Amino acid sequence: MAYVGIISLYLACAGTILSIILGFRALKDKKEPLGILTHWASALSTLCITLSALSLVLALLTNDFNIAYVARHSARNLPLIYKISAFWAGQSGSLLLWLLIISFLSLVVQKNRKYQQNHLHIRLCIVINFVRLLFILLLLFVTPIFELLAERPFDGSGLNPMLQSLGMVIHPPVLFLGFSGFLIPFAFAVIGLWTNDTQATWLRHVGKWVLFAWLFLTMGIVTGGQWAYTELGWGGYWAWDPVENSSFFPWLTSTALLHILLLPNKHRLKRVWSYVLIVLTYTLTIFATFLTRSGVLDSVHAFAGGVLGQIFLAVLVVMAVFCFGLGWHKRQMLSMVPTESTLSNQGLSATGKTIVVGSVLLLMLFAGVLFGTMFPVITRVFTAREVVLDASFFNQLSVPLFLGTIFLMGMSPLLHKKASDIKILTKRLALPVLLALVAAVFTYLSTGHLAASVAFALAAFGFGTHLPVLLSPDSSRRWGGSLVHLGLLIIMVGITGSSIFVDDVLVSVEPGQEIVFGDYRLEYEGLTVRYGSERYTVGTTLAIVENGRCRGEITSEKTFWEGRDQPSTRVGILSTLKEDIYLNLAGWENTTAQLHLQRFALVSWIWAGSWVMYFGVLVALLGDMKLNVKGKQVKLWPRQMR
Predict the structure, then answer these.
(1) How do beta strands 592-601 and 572-575 pair?
(2) What angle do CA 481, 188, 102 make, to 5 degrees?
């Protein structure tokens, strides 16, 4: 399998280089056959990359420990699903996965007829292939994935126990799908400026690609938070860790980009900021890779530092200098207003101004989080000592900016249609303001917490303003956007509740004792020990009783692995709509157990809100698509897009 994989990568490299050369010749000579050959060479490269990836999967499934990567990340007794996920458990495997996703997206671009005018598809193929060539060269010469061992071990080292979870099966692929998706808008934007597209036709193509990539980036961030919450045992889902923040950077800028793309085409602000945010978002995906692989910042998620991080830093610098230099060189073209526009001198509408202010708040948040994340590097360079900012800095920075953004988001449906009469505006505000007052008063009287009252009031206000749109949608894009906003409001309620309303106790108990924890009684019966090959597990199961009725059981375990210093933790979680009971077996002596019990309010709202957001994005993406049914075109969404 190793030889098949490595030969496939070399063939992929040759096919990619050939596709780039043929693409330039096709553009120069204006010959259609050369354009066809460009795509055939690129498709051949994709086929070879797919074959290389399948070779690695087959090597993992057949325990081919001749390959160093398989020996480091798999083992004979590893369950099937984790043998497959070992594909992206290591540094080179994750790069191969990323390359594979980019290659499949390139096929989608090549097959799209909308991109075949003015040789756009050839230019897109060239840009994408330059990026693919970088990954192929890295896999061949910097971090070889099919490196062979001098002596084949009988068994492999196995997959890190923390990665043996469904979260790590899902999280990396969807995150890389999000990162890869931003390459397509980046290619459109760079090509548009390079070819002097004065009408900015590239703007018509990027919207759905940005939304597609944003969907999977959001899903990647959420699934990463779920993995941290259920596997790491510290009770949280977000710790402002540098690698966590690195995926948050492009999310913030792409969210601002999605809203800037809603501005009218006649306004010059749209062109300039769309280009800047597209380039910034894609360069931030490279920056995230640099942080993950450079070792410049400490993180529990990072790979070991090495030359790969330095290469990504060099690529990042070259890309940023080229793209922003190109933007500066073409600044007059970027600031042009379409010639067909008769309203170019008019200012932005109230909705447009809201979009701009909200985008500015998101970019301020990005700048603040970037500063806080890189602060250890800044202090290391200028003061010769490293100062790390804790979570309190990020919380104090993000809370007011997020609340301001949520308020503007709540106002946006009210500004969609002009209210020329104060009575109309008052009527629109009546229900949202009433809901906000009820939520604020109820929260403050029941908890006495002012910050929670403000957050819940803003969430209720936003729900009230979006309710008419949700009940009477007039376009798929607007209804989908309202669903995304609703999901974000639900997530904000969950984050507020789980951050503020927390109980935390550490107790030592003997078998037969009960623990009173809030409204619950937890019955401890003792410890159980299980032995397996190369590991043993110590755990306990607690029955949870509320008001005399058994609500269920939660189990927490510690597993000790042969050859590993740290045990893996399985936490027990009883999740309800109101709160989560979180159990971690902290330690024991004989039959006495030390139990760390925590109670977090409204955590399930975060996961529920994320699904509402996913559905909203799918509505917006699929609403304008057409299906051919018996020779007729049928719209998936019956009303006209606005």
Answers:
(1) unpaired
(2) 85
From residue 67, alpha-carbon distances to 188, 304, 535 in Å are: 39, 20, 25
Tokens of 604: 């399930």
- Could you report the per-residue pLDDT of 430-484, keeping only the tens digit for each? 999 999 999 999 999 998 899 999 999 999 999 999 999 898 877 888 899 999 9
Alpha-carbon distance of 161 to 12, in angstroms, equals 34
67, 148 contact by CB (below 8 A): yes
What is the per-residue pLDDT across 332-379, written as a single tens digit (0 to 9) for each?
Answer: 888 876 555 444 445 677 788 899 999 999 999 999 999 999 999 999
pLDDT surpasses 50 at 629:
no
How far is the CA of 385 from the CAs of 261, 305, 379, 391, 394, in angstroms?
43, 20, 6, 20, 21
pLDDT digits (tens, 9 = 90+) for 103-116: 999 999 988 888 87
Q: Are 242 and 303 in contact (CB under 8 A)?
A: no
> How many angstroms separate the CA atoms of 73 and 91, rounded?
11
Q: What are φ and ψ of residue 22, in 5° steps? A: -65, -35
Residue 95 has pLDDT above 60, yes or no: yes
Q: Any residues with CB less than 8 A from the CB of 30 and at least 6 apart, and which?
A: none
What distance in Å separates the CA atoms of residue 50 and residue 530, rounded to the nearest whole number?
A: 41
Report pLDDT for 278.
97
Distance CA 107, CA 114 (A): 14
The answer to whether residue 523 scores a pLDDT higher than 50 is: yes
Token pair for residue 555?
């189990």
Using an 8 Å Cβ cutoff, are 88 and 97 in contact?
yes
CA–CA separation, 153 and 107 (whole Å): 39
Contacts of 419 (CB under 8 A, 6+ apart): 425, 428
Residue boundaries of the structural domains of the chain: 1-162, 165-242+263-339, 417-499+608-635, 502-601
